[in-house]
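User: structure tokens for this one?
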Amino acid sequence: MTDTTGVRRPAPELVPERLTAPDPGWTTQADVVVIGSGIAGLTAALGIHAEDGGLKLLVVTKDVLNAGSTQWAQGGIAAALGPGDTPDQHERDTLVAGAGACDIEAVRALVTEGPDAVRELIALGTNFDHHPDGELSLTREGGHHRDRIAHAGGDATGAEIQRALIAAVERAPEIEVIQHALAVDLLLAADGGVAGVTLHVLGEGQRDGVGAVHCRAVVLASGGLGQVFSQSTNPTVSTGDGMAIALRAGAVLRDLEFVQFHPTVMYLGPDSQGQQPLISEAVRGEGAFLVDFEGARFMQGQHELADLAPRDVVAKAITRRMIETGHQHMWLDATHLGPEFWEKRFPTILAVCREHGVDPVTELIPVAPAQHYASGGVATDLYGRSSIAGLYATGEVACSGVHGANRLASNSLLEGLVFSRRIAEVLPGELRERVSAASDDRLAWLVAGSHRRDLQDVMTRQVGVLRNDAGLQRAMTYLHELEAGDAVPGTDAWETTNLLAISTALAQAAFIRTETRGSHWREDFPDRDERAGHIDSWLEGGLIRSRWIPSPSTDPSETPAEVIA
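Assistant:
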């Protein structure tokens, strides 16, 4: 049996190569395991099933099927569906928001395939909002020059998409679903490719506890890393598990430093922790605007789109004004929209604001930036393939190259939709032969869940909206020296150890990128370097290694900078 008491951290700066866990108490087989049940995961599962109905598919989700980030998406899904709009225009807006760090071929795939992908969602049963004449209702959000955001239930788009996808999966009994299943680690074959995955399952009868699924491919669709920070719009399940699993298996992670902080998250006070209420960008798209404590509209003159500038521009403007005035938040004024409009267009946001004691029909909403979206993740090609044979990634866990340094509003749901469909196109035809897992003597240990709050506070203070050399070094020192202790294997310790690995890679990437670009803001390097490039990170002998990779437009003679942490 595996030692389940945990071991102490063997040396500063190291992170585990696998998680300490009991030996599997049960085993099963599948052809493909999809980890995650949001738009990316369920679209991948449905698409693979449509391509080859003979494959045994298993979808595993950490909580229940509708507990991920898709459920919480308010604003909508972006695609060139309206009159006069084109994929080329959507492409230009995406590239501008991405601040020179997008993969143009990935963006082109997104915007050209997006409209048909959304139409496919509608055919699947998704009920988007329509005008009385039957035309699809489209709105505008930050960074968009056209009304191209399709929405449902006013501000409940994600919930409606999730409902339709779950219904489709339930109509396909060949797709097996295991809920309350935390993916622990990949099982690797002798050639380093995928041989399976270990899971910890709660409440599944014969599959309680840690077990092993032997499979031919794994699709990571596990979402983001929001719980790295003290305040996030992400649900509590977003602890970077998929990225950490890939990292420990030897996959390359890319551009983790590009973490988007949503500018208008409802401010609940200095001691508020965890998931925070999002005030969708669509509220500003419908005419709301930002003001400071003097009532001044400070976004005027900051950008041609003013309050609808890309999110990094707005988040930085709010943060600057907070620093200048000494206030902990700014205000969003939507009082002129009126009660009927609020109740029809934003019923969910209206209810949440009132739940927290603010009536946006008559009062200003206190807002401040909070972590919202990870543009970086597992590095993939245009068909979701990672650097490990048999491992694919899609959605927020992946870095497809679409978002660059800053995600354009409402491109996230579209990315999960488009690239999951692309995975489904190729995966059945390139499945590996079933192979046995090799023996695994990689170093395993854990940090206790009791460290989570301090880790989140350090990352928020030192690696948040505003970054500098001294703060990043303080963060890395804390992470390197975090005491492991005798952590007992379990969800809390596994999640916290995942947060440690991803936080270390993120802080290190932010330290290497000595420029300000998109969502990465270095106050000690306020200008943009003419060379964007990418920061790639991987695990080698327990050390996270990171280096700058030139982009195609940079000088190939440049030697990539490398740091070990």
